[in-house]
Design goal:
The structure holds two protein chains of two kinds. By secondary structure, chain A is of the alpha+beta class. Chain A is built from two helices and 13 strands. Residues 27-41, 160-167 and 169-174 of chain A have low confidence and may be disordered. Chain B is of the alpha+beta class. Chain B has one helix at residues 2-27, and strands spanning 33-45, 49-51, 58-62, 68-77, 83-91, 97-99, 103-106, 110-119, 127-139. Strand 6 of chain A pairs parallel with strand 2 (49-51) of chain B, so a sheet runs across the interface.
Chain lengths: 238, 142
């Protein structure tokens, strides 16, 4: 009976020592050792990770690839004009690919976003040659009706005050246009942060697609070589 | 016999707690360790583009092959000492994702922006791909 009591007491002591040692280690831990050396510890702070509510997409224009060709200078042409709507005049352009399509952008998130578009290069630097005949332009369209709205929900108008009853009325809180911008061929913007092509791009599944079309004019004397431009679209939550 | 069971039970508890103590010690061996975070990432490879600015994870959105998407985040240090954040990327999209910095040095009360870029290789099959960003914060050692 005495032996049993001794064993029980021994086990209890071992257990106590184990818990006590763990308590000391956990309470003071490695930092306790640092404190003993005199190094100052100030741990009344935090380190945080915060994801920004923005996103950018960088299109290599190779996504809209006009292929390989040249200006038909044999009949006195000064330029070859191509665009993503199929423009490709065979009298002016030789061998280039006729394109139909646009750079389609959707809002897959859960909030409205504004979208800005920027090019890394303008026409003259893009093609070289006579700048009078070099053009690099874009146009924006609604792939789905009502994808781009103003701050009060108005849509389907390029004007701020739509008298036709399309809910695109001037008022407090109106942000931007009631549709995409620009709505005609416009020189690309190379100045940061670019052009706001849609002030309120909705995430609604049936109304969340806009398109970017491209138009280029290649001067007759543009140096041969691969010409690549990069467009960057940046979305920021409203 | 009853006493023997009690002793075995107690010894078992001692062994278990000792193992846990050793594990904790190994985990805490680096006295500079502050904390770590795991942030899920995803990208959809499709034939058109899409944004997703939701902040519950790093959503790169829809990106066709040969194109890129960029997401940004901020690292903030409010300690009175310098902190180093070590970034590592894991999972299926890891080979496609790069950060502007993989080791970010943060002075006291400093915030720094980091960009993550996903570049979809040519001929990548359409579909959704996932990964994880791991950020380990450590006290900067002098």
């Amino acid at each position: 009976m005495k032996n049993n009591t001794t064993l029980l007491a021994l086990a209890f002591v071992l257990l106590s020592v184990t818990f006590a040692s763990q308590y000391v280690l956990i309470t003071y831990g490695p930092q306790g050792i640092v404190q003993i050396t005199g190094a100052p510890i100030t741990d009344t702070g935090t380190v945080t990770f915060t994801l920004e509510s923005t996103g950018s997409i960088r299109f290599a224009v190779a996504t809209l690839n006009f292929g390989t060709g040249k200006v038909n200078v044999s009949v006195g042409n000064t330029e070859c004009i191509l665009d993503s709507n199929g423009t490709n005049d065979s009298n002016k352009c030789i061998n280039f690919t006729r394109l139909f399509g646009n750079l389609s952008l959707e809002n897959d998130g859960s909030t409205n976003v504004s979208v800005q578009l920027l090019s890394d290069v303008a026409a003259a630097a893009f093609f070289g040659g006579n700048p009078a005949f070099a053009r690099f332009r874009w146009n924006t369209i609604l792939n789905e009706t009502g994808s781009c709205r103003n701050g009060t929900g108005g849509y389907n108008s390029s004007t701020w005050n739509d008298a036709t009853g399309l809910k695109c009325a001037v008022g407090a809180g109106v942000i931007g246009n009631c549709t995409v911008n620009p709505m005609n061929w416009t020189d690309v913007n190379t100045t940061s942060a670019g052009t706001t092509i849609c002030a309120v791009f909705t995430p609604d599944a049936a109304n969340d697609s806009i398109g970017i079309e491209l138009n280029i004019s290649i001067p007759f004397d543009a140096p041969a070589g691969v010409k690549t431009a990069t467009l960057t679209a940046t979305a920021t939550s409203n | 016999m009853k006493l023997l069971s009690i002793v075995v039970l107690i010894l078992g508890i001692i062994a278990l707690t000792s193992v846990l103590t050793v594990y904790w010690q190994i985990r805490q061996q680096d006295p500079t360790f502050l904390k770590e975070e795991f942030i899920p990432m995803d990208v959809k490879v499709e034939d058109h583009f899409g944004f997703n600015t939701d902040t519950d994870a790093i959503h790169f959105g829809k990106v066709p092959p040969q194109n890129e998407a960029i997401k940004s985040f901020n690292l903030t240090n409010t300690y009175q000492f310098a902190v180093v954040a070590e970034l590592s990327i894991h999972g299926a999209i890891a080979p496609w994702v790069s950060a502007t910095e993989n080791t970010v040095y943060l002075e006291p009360n400093m915030q720094k922006k980091v960009n993550l870029t996903v570049t979809i290789p040519d001929a990548t099959p359409y579909g959704q791909y996932y990964g994880t960003l791991r950020v380990v914060f450590r006290r900067d050692s002098p």
